[in-house]
Amino acid sequence: MKASQLMEIFQYMLDKSEFHLSKISNRFGISERSLRYEIEKLNEQLFEKNELKIEVEKGCLKHSNWEVVLQNIKNNSINSLSIQEREMYILLHIFLNREINQKLVGIELDISSTTVKTHFKEVKSFLDSYGLSLVIKPKKGLELEGKEENIRVALLKLLNNISKSNSIFLKEYLKESFSQKIEKDGIKRFINYCQKLMKIIISDEAYKIIINYLRISLYMNIKNHRLTEIKNEKFLSETKEYRCIKKAASILEEWYEVELDEKEYLKITDYFLGSNTYNLNYSYYDNWVEIEIMLKEMILDFDSYIKENITEDKLLLEGLLNHIKPTIYRIKNSIELENSIYKEVLESYPNYFNITKAVLKKLEDRMNLQFTEDEISFLVIHFKAAIDRNKVKSKKKRVVLVCGSGYGTSKLLAQQLNQYYHLEIVDIIPEYLIDKVIFKNEIDLILTTVDVKIDLDDKMILKLNPILTDEDKRKIEDIGIYKSSKKISITKLLEVIKCSCKEFDEKDLRDNLKNSFDEYLIDDFIQEKNTISDYIGDRILINEEVKDWKEAIRKVGSLLLKDKIVKESYIENAIKSIEEFGSYMILGDETLFPHARTKGDVFETGFSIMTLKTPMLLPTNELVSTLIMFSSKNNNDHLDTFVKLVDLSNEENFLRDIKKVKKREDFIKILNR
């Protein structure tokens, strides 16, 4: 059994006074016979050192101090280290101590002087790649020389390599000699506070890199190894990120009881700027106008190599802009990506890789830099995604729209989706009908205003607000649904046709045009429509008092019930909808639009309004001070009025003006403004 595996077992047992062989066997996939053999060898070693042996009693392991056992394994495990583990151990010793004695390394690792020389040849090659060297110092051995900045970059690379390795020995050595001295809690608080101040979210990879670098920075300062120079000092000191880091500096200094100088904070800024973030507005690159111009040229160059047209792909340009800027900064500052996808990309898309490499040449020449194979690979992914999007662009996505309650909000959402996007809404349904509709239809996407709990395998689900927000539009476009082309006015189209035809049935032609080009047409044909006042009538209550939200809905609903617009069951169904689907009916500032599916409970289209003297809380803790209840006879009559009321409720001063209303006439004036 490998020493590393044995260390893992006893590391697991540290806080236990006894443990069954069968449990260890099952957990680590090792036979009980092998375990007994290893324990016998351990006991021999412990006996030689006058330490208590491990007792095996009825299949149960017992020892008063497992730490002693673990330390014994560590002391004997060095003989089983791999070549890579030995070399990483030597490098760690060099970086943490800044010197090393080859003879002592041979004794410590129990290897010959020839083997030591072989290891140091590889170690020196690694150091050389970072501009570092080992210099002979009389009576001391070898001493590390090179720029402090380069030493830290090389150590950071080594730490990342060790974290990805399976070497328990190295991780334990690192823990004892480095990690325990600089624990992570204070660093995490510092990073999280910086993110809050900068209004960014750092990617997982960048988060780990910055944690490791801060550990290195703190350790080196405690050891009195300080940065002597820093690149782009003036630029870094003028960034927003630097100001945020300086504001958070006291967290680090107080937590670790160390004082960092200006250069240290500038270098920390350097790492924040070089990180991949989920924030699209990257302050460092705001003025890099020339990069966008070069990227557009690069897309044109790439397009000339392929059959697909990707020159108008907005997502491609945005994606490249968001990726290329941190990439350039990383390359210029020797910040390496740790997650390589080069081999996978080269195997899967060799042609796209070669094209990307070719079109990058202009950018490399202009900016005096060279893209690594890893960085090129990430850019290939952006181009591949654009090519795939272009292939499916002409095909409409088949969409099911899920709404928890009546057709009111869902029809409005459908109207917006059809107006803005290249898609086909197959059906508008409640959640419980999803399985049946999907079974009968070939569906690409499910858009919903409520949480969908049904397991839909690989079907894509996107939750939206009942009224599309800018964030909703971004989410829709991010999954590859394209905006529709410009709309056509029916009246203008009719004028053209009238000029060419002497006799025709205008209504019939209008209907045919709508049937053929509905998603491309704006139906602006003038016809007499009901106004807000027509739909509301006298159904307005001002400054009412209610004991809870259910009473409020029954009270505003009673106005529709009294005028025989709805049945009582419609009001109760509206209450059930809020209980089941939460507060998605809040469409304006403290404004609730309660409604339900018709199910034969509606006689006419109508609205009723009620304001509350004291705002009430919904079950989901949202505050409501205005209720606008509506019903629709044919699911279309109310849409214009509904949209108008929603728009009004979202106006900046709506809530303030409503609270001043004392009588119905004042309310009507607000609605008609």
Give a verbal description of the structure.
The chain is of the alpha/beta class and 673 residues long. It folds into 7 domains: 3-78, Orthogonal Bundle (Arc Repressor Mutant, subunit A), CATH 1.10.10; 82-147 and 173-178, Arc Repressor Mutant, subunit A; 182-273; 287-385, PTS-regulatory domain, PRD (Orthogonal Bundle), CATH 1.10.1790.10; 397-478, Rossmann fold, CATH 3.40.50; 488-522, no CATH class; 532-671, Mannitol-specific EII, Chain A (3-Layer(aba) Sandwich), CATH 3.40.930.10. Helices cover 56% and strands 11% of the residues. It has a 5-stranded mixed β-sheet. It has a 4-stranded parallel β-sheet with strand order 8-7-9-10, sandwiched between helices. It has a 3-stranded antiparallel β-sheet with strand order 1-3-2. Strand 16 (606-617) and strand 17 (623-631) form a beta hairpin. The longest helix has 20 residues, at 373-392.
Whole-number mean pLDDT: 80
Q: What is the CATH fold-level name of the largest domain?
A: Mannitol-specific EII, Chain A
Q: Using the 3D structure, state the CATH architecture of the largest domain.
A: 3-Layer(aba) Sandwich
Helix content: 55-70%
Tally of individual helices: 31
User: Span between N and C termini?
Assistant: 83 Å
Biggest beta sheet attributes: 5 strands, mixed
CATH class of the largest domain: Alpha Beta
Q: How much of the polypeptide forms β-strand, as a percent range?
A: 5-15%
How many separate domains make up the residues?
7
Question: Whole-number radius of gyration?
Answer: 35 Å
Overall geometry = elongated
- DSSP strand tally: 17
Give me the secondary-structure category: alpha/beta
The CATH homologous superfamily of the largest domain is called Mannitol-specific EII, Chain A
Widest sheet: strand ordering:
13-16-17-15-14
Unreliable stretches covering 5 or more consecutive residues: 277-289
